[in-house]
Each structure stands twice: as structure tokens, then as C-alpha cells.
Amino acid sequence: GENVEQHPSTLSVQEGDSAVIKCTYSDSASNYFPWYKQELGKGPQLIIDIRSNVGEKKDQRIAVTLNKTAKHFSLHITETQPEDSAVYFCAAPLWDFGNEKLTFGTGTRLTIIP
Amino acid sequence: GAGVSQSPSNKVTEKGKDVELRCDPISGHTALYWYRQRLGQGLEFLIYFQGNSAPDKSGLPSDRFSAERTGESVSTLTIQRTEQRDSAMYRCASSLAGGTTAHLSTEAFFGQGTRLTVV
Which of B6, B58, B91, B107 to mutate to test the interface with A (most CBs of A within 10 A)? Predict the structure, then answer.
């Protein structure tokens, strides 16, 4: 069925290094790709999103890239800091009988090592 | 403005009792989602409401789980005859997204969740 796959499930990087998390989706009609960050004890919050009419979007140290042909998108965090440690979820809208359902990946636990 | 509101924030119940969890979405949001999140785990989809369409119940784990939504407003998730394995954080989210024409997805906003503990 239609789904969103996310890799890796856990990721540890040294402070200052870069982190990359990848997601693939199956519905070619998907046109919006958000990334959520969930800090300990809190609900997921949007950190960046990209629409299908662009290939890359940057916001300070975070960026998202999209390859519509291959149906995958990635989150890039540069110059990582301890406060980047969290669980990150990607999502994509999957169309089902004319309705759009935002479907989440399984999450990546990112740990920044001081 | 007000975000997604969930109540109660914490619920402790005895095994076998029924519980009702409430979600007040952001006004005007047509899409509403319920997820279950076990400690340290991802978001497990439960049910999805979109406007007046029939809800997508494909994620409900058993017939003890049900949910309702009144129009495009409040939703309640009911768990009957609770079991210890139902213990988890239950999260609600709403968005403007959906429909057959706009093809324009928007951000989903999450509530703070209801932590359910079945003892």
C-alpha cells in the first residue's frame, strides 16, 4: 500500500558535524513534504517543509531536498548542536479515495554527541 | 490563536474501564488525526477525519477503539474495556489540508497529547 519510509531509525553524530535523514514515499501525487521535530516530552512540531515545485529549501542550519523522480526527500542539518537532539519525523500526503491523509515516517532518533 | 487542545492531559484508569479522550482542533481545520505513541516509539496512525467524508478507521487496533467527530469540530476517542497494553500517549492533530480540488497540503498541528495509563 501507499506509505512513507524513513531511514535511519537512529543516528548519532559529533557536535558540529552534519546529519542527514532520508524518506521515500510511494504516492506520485504527493506534493507537500514536511519535517517534524519532537523533543522529549513534547508533541511534534513542524521545522521545515517543501512543496513539489522546488527541489531544495533552506532555513539557517536546516535544509530539505526533494527528488520527485525518485520519490525521496531528505532533511539536512549542518553544524549540529546539542539542542538538535530529538526525534525527527518526515511526512507526505497520501491520496486515498479523493481525500488526502498526511502519513508519517517511523521517526529518526538523532543524538548529538558533545 | 488557540492551538489543538486535548483533554485530559493525563488519565489513569483501571483495567476494564472505558475512557474517553477529547480533541479540540484548530477552528476551520477540516482534517483531524488521532495517533498513538508508545514511549520511545513513532506515531501510530489510528483514525482520520476529513470534512464530511467517511472516516478512515484503518489504523484502529481493535473494536474496543472508536472515535467520533462532530462536524468539523471536537473529536472523541473512546477505548472500551481498557487493557494495560493501551497505555500510551494519544496525540491528536489537525490541518487545513484535504479535499479533491485544492491539492494543497498544509501543516498539521499537534496537541500536547493525553497520557493514558491503564493499571
Answer: B107
